[in-house]
């Protein structure tokens, strides 16, 4: 949840109190307009202080001057934006997070006139988005709040050339911010609070935004023949669910785009039980589903002009006397059979049935699934990129571009007949695990058997969605990864 933090957009003018934030390049010079606003003596003061503090104006570097002479403010915060190359690749959301992390008191004013950079209304809106996301914290279960974590300005003023234009763009960003926070909250919730049914209820709350939500229970899934998903769910006293969310913002005859999320609310590994150390993190094994719910909120909030389907498979993987075993064979909704080699390779079983259901019922333009699917992807990509597997070059290229634009980066991984052959089974059509080698690619190969000819991409987000490296817009455990990426994909390519 985000704390009480207000952001206003005003025309450029003199700050009268609180913190004042200005930006300089690697030559230590602010823009001409800012230099005129703060005066030559303050520009000289910045240069003198920089020499004393060894501040060189590098990108993301910060220097703070307390009670600066000649200015009626408490602190002057000087933020470096680096040289020409740094400015060309500036991430405005990260910049907003950096600002939010440096201010304190009741008021801070940032003059968004940056040297050598065209600051568009979209860029300013991203600064505001980043500042809001930086303030997120999940402390609803703490009886004593961390006052240190709550420090920071309660009001941030961003001064800009055209406040009216910025406000219009920023309004659309509010839904994205809320969507990311929804995804973070879902991933952070403890598993005793958020079971499959409770998760489905969170999805149903999207109805207030005009999203049509349908919930499939055990009986409905059994009737559809979702034997793979139900095989995972049968070890838990908490029954599985599938939530189908539909946003109809495009033309009635347009095929939808579809997003599918793995929602294992807690993963013990089942009979193939995981080691105890770190198992508490397996409450986040539903981050793919959390992203889809957050994305649907973002799209509906800004009334995206697209038809969108979001589908999430919700189960708990537990090792009771009714749990499936290694050696079991399950029949999927598609009619294909899967031999269970490892019950801890459960996410692909959940996704197999949901992918088939979505392609069969909705005939989408494309399907993208998100899943904290394999530890192997972190061996390959650490926690810097999500693994991207796809049967469609155009979709993969568009995802890569959206990742570069938002900072939620993806890296395309191999997917070919060699990996598909590795999942062939002696006793069934396929097996759910082919061993350690190429583990992310063989998992993706199994999923590909359930998409038919629909353009499809699989995002393995095991390293990026939970416990991921902290940055300027995420200081918590759950990142809400994927909401901004996929909103950008839809906005750039699939709206009417």
TrEMBL record:
A GO cellular component entry from the record: cytoplasm
The Cytosol aminopeptidase domain, residue ranges: 342-349
GO MF annotation, one: metalloaminopeptidase activity
Database matches in InterPro entries: Leucine_aapep/pepB, Macro_dom-like, Peptidase_M17_C, Peptidase_M17_leu_NH2_pept, Peptidase_M17_N
Positions of Mn(2+) 1 binding: 267, 344, 346
Catalyzed reactions per annotation: Release of an N-terminal amino acid, Xaa-|-Yaa-, in which Xaa is preferably Leu, but may be other amino acids including Pro although not Arg or Lys, and Yaa may be Pro. Amino acid amides and methyl esters are also readily hydrolyzed, but rates on arylamides are exceedingly low; Release of an N-terminal amino acid, preferentially leucine, but not glutamic or aspartic acids
GO BP, sorted A to Z: proteolysis
Cofactor note text: Binds 2 manganese ions per subunit.
EC number of this enzyme: 3.4.11.1, 3.4.11.10
Keyword flag Protease: yes
Sites where the protein binds Mn(2+) 2: 262, 267, 285, 346
Localization, UniProt: Cytoplasm
Organism domain of life: Bacteria
Keywords: Aminopeptidase, Cytoplasm, Hydrolase, Manganese, Metal-binding, Protease
Catalytic residues (UniProt): 274, 348
Keyword NADP: no
Needed cofactors: Mn(2+)
Pfam family, one: Peptidase_M17
Function comment: Presumably involved in the processing and regular turnover of intracellular proteins. Catalyzes the removal of unsubstituted N-terminal amino acids from various peptides.
NCBIfam families: PRK00913.1-4 (NF002074), PRK00913.2-2 (NF002075), PRK00913.2-4 (NF002077)
UniProt family annotation: Belongs to the peptidase M17 family.
Name this polypeptide is given: Probable cytosol aminopeptidase
Native organism taxonomy: Bacteria, Pseudomonadati, Pseudomonadota, Alphaproteobacteria, Hyphomicrobiales
Gene coding for it: pepA
């Amino acid at each position: 949840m985000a704390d009480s933090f207000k952001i206003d957009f005003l025309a450029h003018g003199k700050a009268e109190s609180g913190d004042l934030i200005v930006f300089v390049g690697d030559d230590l010079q602010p823009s001409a307009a800012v230099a005129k606003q703060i005066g030559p003596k303050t520009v000289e003061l910045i240069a003198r202080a920089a020499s004393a503090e060894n501040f060189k104006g590098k990108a993301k570097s910060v220097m703070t001057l307390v009670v600066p002479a000649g200015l009626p403010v408490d602190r002057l915060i000087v933020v470096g934006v680096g040289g020409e190359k740094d400015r060309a690749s500036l991430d405005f959301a990260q910049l907003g997070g950096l600002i939010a992390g440096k201010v304190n008191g009741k008021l801070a004013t940032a003059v968004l006139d940056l040297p050598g950079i065209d600051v568009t209304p979209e860029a300013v809106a991203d600064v505001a988005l980043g500042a809001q996301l930086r303030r997120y914290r999940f402390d609803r279960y703490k009886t004593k709040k961390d006052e240190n974590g709550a420090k920071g300005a309660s009001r941030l003023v961003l001064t800009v050339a055209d406040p009216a234009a910025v406000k219009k763009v920023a309004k659309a960003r509010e839904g994205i911010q809320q969507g990311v926070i929804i995804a973070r909250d879902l991933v952070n919730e403890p598993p005793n609070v958020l079971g499959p049914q409770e998760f489905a209820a969170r999805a149903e709350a999207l109805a207030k935004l005009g999203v049509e939500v349908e919930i499939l229970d055990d009986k409905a899934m059994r009737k559809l023949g979702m034997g793979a998903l139900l095989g995972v769910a049968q070890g838990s006293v908490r029954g599985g669910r599938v939530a189908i969310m539909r946003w109809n913002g495009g033309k009635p005859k347009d095929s939808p785009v579809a997003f599918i999320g793995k929602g294992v609310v807690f993963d013990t590994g089942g009979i193939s039980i995981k080691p105890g150390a770190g198992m508490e993190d397996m409450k986040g094994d539903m981050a793919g589903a959390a992203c889809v719910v957050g994305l649907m909120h973002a799209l509906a909030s800004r009334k995206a002009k697209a038809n969108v389907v979001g589908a999430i498979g919700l189960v708990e993987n537990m090792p009771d006397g009714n749990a499936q075993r290694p050696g079991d064979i399950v029949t999927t909704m598609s009619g294909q059979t899967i031999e269970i080699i490892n019950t801890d390779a459960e996410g692909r079983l959940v996704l197999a049935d949901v992918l088939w259901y979505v392609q069969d019922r909705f005939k989408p333009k494309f399907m993208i699934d998100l899943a904290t699917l394999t530890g192997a992807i972190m061996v390959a990509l650490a926690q810097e990129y999500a693994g991207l597997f796809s049967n469609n070059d155009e979709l993969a290229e568009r995802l890569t571009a959206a990742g570069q634009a938002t900072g939620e980066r993806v890296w395309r991984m191999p997917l070919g007949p060699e990996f598909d052959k590795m999942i062939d089974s002696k006793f069934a059509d396929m097996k759910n695990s082919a061993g350690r080698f190429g583990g992310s690619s063989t998992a993706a190969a199994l999923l590909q058997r359930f998409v038919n000819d629909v353009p499809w991409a699989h995002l393995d987000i095991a390293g990026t969605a939970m416990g991921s490296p902290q940055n300027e817009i995420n200081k918590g455990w759950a990142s809400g990864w994927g909401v901004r990426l996929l909103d950008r994909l839809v906005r750039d390519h699939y709206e009417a």
